[in-house]
Amino acid sequence: MTYQLSWHIPDQVLALDISGEYTLNEAEAVNTIVGRELKQVKRPITIIIDATHMERPHNFQELRAAQNYMHHRYLDHIMVASDDKVIKLAMMIIFNMSRAYFTVVDSVDQALTQIR
Q1: Domain ranges in the chain?
Q2: Residue 70: what are its φ and ψ, rounded to 5°?
Q3: What is the pLDDT of residues 4-62, one digit of tens each?
Q4: CB-based contacts of 115: which residues, under 8 Å, 6+ apart?
Q5: What DSSP assignment string belongs to 6-69?
Q6: CA 32, CA 69: separation in Å to the nearest integer?
Q7: What's the predicted TM-score (pTM) here?
Q8: CATH T-level topology, domain 3-115
Q9: From CA 26, how far away is CA 66, in angstroms rounded?
């Protein structure tokens, strides 16, 4: 498995860790489980995507099409952590049509500092 989803702060901040190759099948699975979590919350949340150990994705458009959760009304903020410029660009392309506020940072620690 190249992804793991957990609550960093219950009902406030979701943490999605991605490592290795992030395939279309995994993106679809993540979409399902994040969507399931969003259906359970009663207020806007933030998701921090830790892509610091992610390999560079091959097809941004396919991954983008699979991430329907980014349009959910309770997803307020998407934060992506990566120090790789190509991954940052890929994430900007994937999430640029999201209704959520989008931020790219170099590390998860920077994301958590911005949340506090």
Answers
A1: 3-115
A2: -65, -10
A3: 999 999 999 999 999 998 888 999 999 999 999 999 999 999 999 999 999 988 788 88
A4: 13, 46, 48, 79
A5: EEEETTTEEEEEEEE---HHHHHHHHHHHHHHHHH-SS-EEEEEEEEEEPPPS-HHHHHHH-GG
A6: 8
A7: 0.93
A8: Rossmann fold (3.40.50)
A9: 9
SS3 call for 108: helix
Q: Which pair of tokens denotes residue 27?
A: 């993106």
Q: Is 109 exposed, middle or buried (0-12, 13-18, 19+ CB in 10 A)?
A: exposed
Question: Are 95 and 60 contacting, i.e. CB atoms less than 8 angstroms apart?
Answer: no
Between the two ends of the chain, the Cα-to-Cα distance in Å is: 30
Q: Using one digit for the tens of pLDDT, what is the confidence trace for 33-48?
A: 999 999 999 999 999 9
